[in-house]
Amino acid sequence: MTKSKLLEMNNVGIVVENLDDAISFFSEIGLTLEGRGMVEGEWAGQATGLGNQSVEIAMMVTPDGHGRLELSRFLTPTTISDHRTAPVNSLGYLRVMFRVENIDELVTRLIKQGAELIGEMVQYEDMYRLCYIRGVEGLLVGLAEQLKEK
Known about the structure:
- The protein is α/β, with parallel strands linked by helices.
- It folds into 2 domains: 8-80, 2,3-Dihydroxybiphenyl 1,2-Dioxygenase, domain 1 (Roll); 83-150, 2,3-Dihydroxybiphenyl 1,2-Dioxygenase, domain 1, CATH 3.10.180.10.
- The protein contains 3 helices and 8 strands; from the N terminus they run βαβαβββαβββ.
- Strands 1-4-3-2 form a 4-stranded mixed sheet. The protein has a 4-stranded mixed sheet with strand order 5-8-7-6, with helices on one face.
């Protein structure tokens, strides 16, 4: 039997309370709404282990077409825990990071819309400027601007 091989990372999933607000936030960063719809029924719950479920999802795609975020709002079953305000050194999902141009302009724009800068904007050697922000619903997002090609 031929060993399977990894082809691509399809998406990262983030559960939110307000899908419209999350779509707006990630659109502001530069992702595009690729599609939105319902995933429901026993078949979906068989994959997740949650049983009969009803989830509204929105798929957001990066400008290069390779990276995707699947934003999910669970109608049933209800969410059972909340990790959105966990600090950076917590176990499990923490953040998603995007490489951007003009990080200062983007951070200023996001702060005007209610995002919070975590710590400070820092520079890693002469290669990156980066920061963490808490955006919509307290989601932790990393932003990095590449200063020079590797």
